[in-house]
Amino acid sequence: MILSTTIQFPNLHINIEHLPKSFSVFGFDIAFYGCIIALGMLAGIAIVCYEAKRTGQDYNQYIDFALYAIVFSVIGARAYYVIFRWSYYSAHPTEIINIREGGLAIYGGVIVAILTCFIYTKIKKMSFPKVCDTAILGLILGQIIGRWGNFFNRESFGEYTEWITAMQIPVSAVRSGEVSGTMRDNLLTINGTSYIQVQPVFLY
């Protein structure tokens, strides 16, 4: 079942109705979050390969590195997320591998990516600083694109605000653990639906 909700930016007079989290292909739900992350990864690899060719490096080595880095970074991002929410996952261990509901922390992904880069450059006898200098472009572009996955997933938003960019999301569309006391104290009821009003951190 594809869930959809309305997201509003009242001060900007933007109202996005029935925004889904996923779409269906042959009865299988595919999350927009995953598609956007994948697009960010592909764009990141493309710009790194371009930079490698521009600076006289072998771009094939960066493609090989990306294959390792992506796999290990996803594991690292999930591990970081789970570790800092261990009170929940220790009681629900079967949820640890359930990333279809979100739960990837970029900090863990970046840490593991750097570690993977260090090991890879040692094995391939490449310059670690030079590879980092080239690969960072892909990380930045991937983040710029990938953060929009948080928008579709209704996550990674900031605290309650009345600022011009304030975003209103139905309480029922977000994980309860992400709703702070301040947000609950300032709930808005619009047409019978309770909304939190928060900073769109993904946009910043």
Architecture blueprint of SSEs:
Blueprint: E1 4-9, E2 14-20, E3 22-25, E4 28-31, H1 32-54, H2 59-83, H3 86-89, H4 106-124, H5 128-146, H6 148-153, E5 167-170, H7 181-185, E6 188-190, E7 193-198
Antiparallel strand pairs: 1-2, 3-4, 5-7, 6-7
SS summary, helix count = 7
Structural class: alpha+beta
Percentage of β-strand residues: 15-25%
Q: What coarse outline follows from CA principal-axis ratios?
A: elongated
* Distance separating the two termini: 31 Å
pLDDT averaged over residues: 90
Low-confidence stretches: none
E-strand count: 7
Question: Roughly how many Å is the radius of gyration?
Answer: 19 Å
Helix content: 40-55%
Largest sheet: 3 strands, antiparallel
Strand order of the biggest β-sheet: 5-7-6
Order of helices and strands: EEEEHHHHHHEHEE
Describe the protein in words.
- The chain is α+β, with helices and mostly antiparallel strands and 204 residues long.
- It contains seven helices and seven strands.
- It has helices spanning 32-54, 59-83, 86-89, 106-124, 128-146, 148-153, 181-185, and strands at residues 4-9, 14-20, 22-25, 28-31, 167-170, 188-190, 193-198.
- The strands form three sheets. A three-stranded antiparallel sheet has the order 5-7-6, with no helix packed on it. A two-stranded antiparallel sheet has the order 1-2.
- Helix 1 packs antiparallel against helix 5 (128-146) and helix 2 runs antiparallel to helix 4 (106-124).
- The longest helix has 25 residues, at 59-83.
- The mean pLDDT is 90.
